């Protein structure tokens, strides 16, 4: 599991942005694009190279108190995102 | 490599039975057909010497603006060799400011440290360099230039030194595919983030040279096996480099879902402003609109050329009654046209096609062919004029 004091940052050349035409957030990278669902987008919004995983969990738990197991979702996201090399950890 | 495109909204549009297309997410700007190299597999049209006038800076920027409004998010600058355009940095900046992810697709010839820095300042997101082979001699012979290889290596290093993500693209064919280990080693040494090992597609110049380029089945199987070994090794090392291996569809029994369906995702603007749904579509006997005469919205949604093969009403048999037609859309229109003479036919790669024999014959020919590299027709103005009367 990703240690909570690690700071995720987007891999160089990867960009997260809102696409009005597709009405969703996307991750853009060399010659590719992935449409993101709402939960992934909420996490990506907080990946700024300053907040560590603990801060991201605290932020989202506070904003979405009714979502059970949000920390597990965030850990799972970190696993996938780093296995895909979308993010690095500082 | 665009891994989205799940937007097949089958909403009825004004025209009966033509499904409403998704947005043109991928815009390819073929800035120029000029190129200092002469690859025999070049996908540029055979009559490229006939095409003269290129869009101006302002005209290109207007194309970017309108396409972005329609939803384009990926923008590729290609050619020919896009570095020939002196306004490239200006175009990059304009596109980046609109929110595009900007890709420069180059042979590396004409690239300098100074320009790399300039592009970086303009906001360029990524650079792809294409190689002809990992072996200096073969590379130079195929590219028709001696200094090409050394220049490419130097520029690949400079691209990484400037912190760009880098895609290295190797077009493979029967003369270089046996050195795939050397190719992959070189890419890893250059710290490529993505490596595309694509067997050349047989359009444009490559079709003319097919017998000299198509690898044998054994060559392909061997190359794929080696690529998989490297993948396993990279994964074990948690190495970020991704290897992408694209096989030629000449060895398949079903065609590729070409371009994810006709005019469904991809918009190509050629140097003179002609809009195409795929970069090899210009050869089809279909009239395509020009951005100097029509808006991008009209071109994408209304024009005859872009609607010509949307949906499935245009399909003759065997595609018409085939239950796989929504999977592969009948394959590639250009390949159907080139090999059967009718662009509406099933792609002859399909074993259900009455013309599948031409593919089988090409495979056999690959087994027998002993044609050396000297026999390949190089892509240059002189050859272009010899092939197409100007
Ligand atoms: S394929 Fe070769 S000749 Fe054709 S545009 Fe690219 S670099 Fe130039
Ligand atoms: S017959 Fe046509 S639709 Fe069916 S698999 Fe072959 S090419 Fe595809």
From TrEMBL, chain A:
It holds the Pfam family PqqD. One of its GO terms (molecular function) is quinone binding. Keywords: PQQ biosynthesis. One of its GO terms (biological process) is pyrroloquinoline quinone biosynthetic process. Pathway: Cofactor biosynthesis; pyrroloquinoline quinone biosynthesis. InterPro entries: PQQD, PqqD_bac, PqqD_sf. Monomer. Interacts with PqqE. Functions as a PqqA binding protein and presents PqqA to PqqE, in the pyrroloquinoline quinone (PQQ) biosynthetic pathway. Belongs to the PqqD family. This is PqqA binding protein. It comes from Pseudomonas turukhanskensis.
Automatic annotation (TrEMBL), chain B:
Belongs to the radical SAM superfamily. PqqE family. The gene is pqqE. GO terms for molecular function: 4 iron, 4 sulfur cluster binding; cyclase activity; iron ion binding; oxidoreductase activity; S-adenosyl-L-methionine binding. It catalyses: [PQQ precursor protein] + S-adenosyl-L-methionine = E-Y cross-linked-[PQQ precursor protein] + 5'-deoxyadenosine + L-methionine + H(+). GO terms for biological process: molybdopterin cofactor biosynthetic process; pyrroloquinoline quinone biosynthetic process. Pathway: Cofactor biosynthesis; pyrroloquinoline quinone biosynthesis. The keyword Iron applies. Interacts with PqqD. The interaction is necessary for activity of PqqE. Binds 1 [4Fe-4S] cluster. The cluster is coordinated with 3 cysteines and an exchangeable S-adenosyl-L-methionine. It comes from Pseudomonas turukhanskensis. Residues 21-237 form the Radical SAM core domain. The keyword Glycoprotein does not apply. Its EC number is 1.21.98.4. Transmembrane segments: none annotated. Catalyzes the cross-linking of a glutamate residue and a tyrosine residue in the PqqA protein as part of the biosynthesis of pyrroloquinoline quinone (PQQ). This is PqqA peptide cyclase. [4Fe-4S] cluster binds at residues 35, 39, 42. Keywords: 4Fe-4S, Iron, Iron-sulfur, Metal-binding, Oxidoreductase, PQQ biosynthesis, S-adenosyl-L-methionine. Its cofactor is [4Fe-4S] cluster. PROSITE patterns: MOAA_NIFB_PQQE (PS01305), RADICAL_SAM (PS51918).
